[in-house]
Design a protein that fits this description.
This protein is α/β, with parallel strands linked by helices. It has eight helices and ten strands. Helix 1 packs across helix 2. It starts with a strand and ends with a strand. 43% of the residues are buried. The protein binds the ligand O=C1O[C@H](COP(=O)(O)O)[C@@H](O)[C@H](O)[C@H]1O. Ligand LXAUTJHC binds next to loops.
């Protein structure tokens, strides 16, 4: 794991956006398209705004989410709504977005999960995956407090699973650890000292079902870079 400390989130976002654009550009040149997987929550908002202004042939970029809350995009807590309002704008408006929500099963992520599995099954290896982390050590929607945590971390897990966290709102849909690790480069994006403390706790302990971010930190298949700023 590579750890990068930045003096400010502005410096982090500028460098991060340039790095992502270079990797997506390289993927387009090598394979004709790039698959870019982002996370929701509050942390990535300024990064999304910076990326939206970045020169790239976005029409060759497929964007999806590592996870989403099972909500229509109009809901203020929908990660899809956040991505559409902040990333899929300006120069990045030409990107193709793959939603993790299905309105025909809008009240039940468990019923809708098969639709999402079908939708994402053709996605190639993720060229760039950005993960966030909650203060409980969850990443994507692999929540330690959920009944689905062992299924999400299993080596034979499906690509996506529905999750009901016990201590966070909304049903979720999440890529499994197995599918998240089918990536060429993983970034963990952290802002705030508290998240750094949580990351250090995660590095120190063995059990990924207690802190699912460990499944990303303690593997050797995919390079991981942590981009951190205190504020
Ligand atoms: O619930 C979620 O939380 C994490 C972390 O969010 P943040 O607001 O602390 O940045 C996020 O990575 C994940 O995508 C989201 O669904």
């Amino acid at each position: 794991m590579k750890m990068q400390h930045f003096d400010s989130s502005t410096a982090l976002n500028d460098a991060f956006a340039a790095d992502i654009a270079a990797r997506l550009q390289q993927a387009i040149e090598t394979r004709g398209q790039a698959v870019f997987v982002v996370s929701g929550g509050k942390t990535p908002l300024p990064l999304f705004k910076a990326l939206a202004q970045t020169d790239l042939d976005w029409s060759k970029v497929v964007i999806t989410l590592a996870d989403d809350r099972w909500l229509p995009e109009q809901h203020p807590d929908s990660n899809e709504g956040l991505v559409k309002a902040n990333l899929l704008q300006h120069k990045a408006a030409a990107a193709h977005f793959v939603s993790l929500f299905d309105a025909t099963h809008q009240d039940d992520a468990f019923a809708g999960c098969a639709v999402i599995a079908e939708r994402v099954k053709g996605l190639a290896t993720f060229d760039v995956l950005i993960l966030g982390m909650g203060e409980d050590g969850h990443t994507a929607s692999l929540f330690p407090c959920s009944e689905q945590i062992q299924a999400g971390l299993a080596d034979n897990a499906p690509d996506v699973l529905a999750v009901q966290p016990a201590t966070a709102p909304y049903q979720r849909i999440s890529f499994s650890k197995k599918r998240l690790l089918d990536s060429r480069q993983i970034y963990i994006h952290l802002v705030g000292e508290k998240k750094l403390t949580v990351l250090q706790q995660a590095e120190a302990g063995p059990d990924a079902s207690e802190m699912p971010i460990r499944a990303i930190l303690q593997q050797q298949l995919v390079p991981v870079t942590v981009n951190f700023a205190a504020s």
